[in-house]
Amino acid sequence: MFTNVLSAAVVALGAAQLAAAQTSTLCNPLKTSCPPDPAVGGTTVKIDFTQGANDFFTVADGTTLAYDPSKGAVFAIKKQGDAPTITSKKYIFFGRVEVVAQASVGVGIVTSAVLQSDDLDEIDWEWLGGDNKEVQTNYFSKGDTSTYNRGGFSGVGTPNAQFHTYTIDWTPQALNWMIDGTVVRTLNYGDASGGASYPQTPMQVKLGTWAAGAPDQPAGTIQWAGGSTDFSQAPFNAYFQSLTITDYCNGVSGAGQYVYGDHSGTYKSIKVVGGSDSSNTSSSSSASSSSVSSSTKTTASTSSTSTSTSSSAASTTSSTSSSTLSAPTALSVSNSTINTNTSTTASSAPTTSSPSSSTGPHSAAGTLSVSVANVALVGAAIFAYLSL
């Protein structure tokens, strides 16, 4: 039994190190004044990676992508230190993000589809290359890594061998993770510390892969990732075939920018600024998008995979029951559809996070020392064991 407790502690520790690596920002609006976030706006953006590179994204330093005519964008880890990553140049303020992906194989290899805000709110899909039966879901609020009880596993058939459609539908009331159209996990606003720990600020979309099992990673991260990566088996390829993004704009039409009105980091403090954008009127056709209710029937289970390290931790549940919340109803926006595929490579426009192979949202930077990791590991194990 102690071995099981210790394993749970390792999972929690791995999540801690992963979170520390993934949460980075060039300007945190909770601490200082930052430039406005450009909005995707009331549109549905459809990106077909089988058609080639796309200027909707900023490509991280050191990232070189190939494009397969049937599988789409190829995120290849060819050697230790590779961490191909792309980040959207624009933000959504609540919305729906749907990605068709096939995760990479390879022990210790992590494939990620992440939403992240300037103040470090975060919503995650993450696939481990050594696990061909499950996908991990997680969320963070304001970069808080004091507790790690928010993660979960959801079953999915051979995610490293075939494509599936993974969807995040995010409103002020609830956050739904969906696989092939079925809700597998729901986080209600009120269940996240009464909303205080609920992700609720404008977010970019980030896609990428990195080697959590590399020899330069902390021991806890390598254990969480399933073991050490054998780079002699490279390349490790993940495929993103297509991406569909709808910006709900917090129910406000004509969104051009999102501005933090104060340092609270609540959705009520975010100002939606109107403005014209040429991408909102070009090559458009009608499309519809609707948010998923928190009462949607869940047919796939989600189990908690992390150990709480604080009695005051924000709780996450897989419940899909409706609850009365203080957040107002978000409006689904379906003004137009845009195809932004281009034959050119993504520009180097600045972004709130441009990770290199050693730092950033999809590279496990060694921000936690091994000694701190061991203390956290042992502490979590002892706490859990004494609680039996």
Short description:
By secondary structure, the chain is mainly beta. The protein contains 3 helices and 21 strands.
**Share of residues in strands:** 25-35%
- Name given to the CATH architecture: Sandwich
- In N-to-C order, the SSE pattern is HEEEEEEEEEEEEEEEHEEEEEEH
* Straight-line N-to-C gap: 9 Å
Q: What would the CATH topology be?
A: Jelly Rolls
Ranges where pLDDT stays below 50 over 5 or more residues in a row are: 1-22, 276-388
* Biggest sheet details: 10 strands, mixed
CATH class: Mainly Beta
Average pLDDT metric: 75
Gross morphology is globular
Number of domains: 1
Task: Kindly name the structural category.
Answer: mainly beta
Percent helix, as a range, is 10-25%
Overall description:
The chain has helices spanning 2-22, 219-224, 370-386, and strands spanning 37-38, 44-48, 57-59, 66-68, 72-77, 85-88, 95-102, 109-117, 122-128, 134-140, 152-155, 164-170, 174-179, 182-188, 203-211, 236-247, 255-260, 270-274, 284-285, 302-304, 337-339. The chain is mainly beta and 388 residues long. It has a single domain, classed as Jelly Rolls, CATH 2.60.120. Helix 1 packs across helix 3. The longest helix has 21 residues, at 2-22.
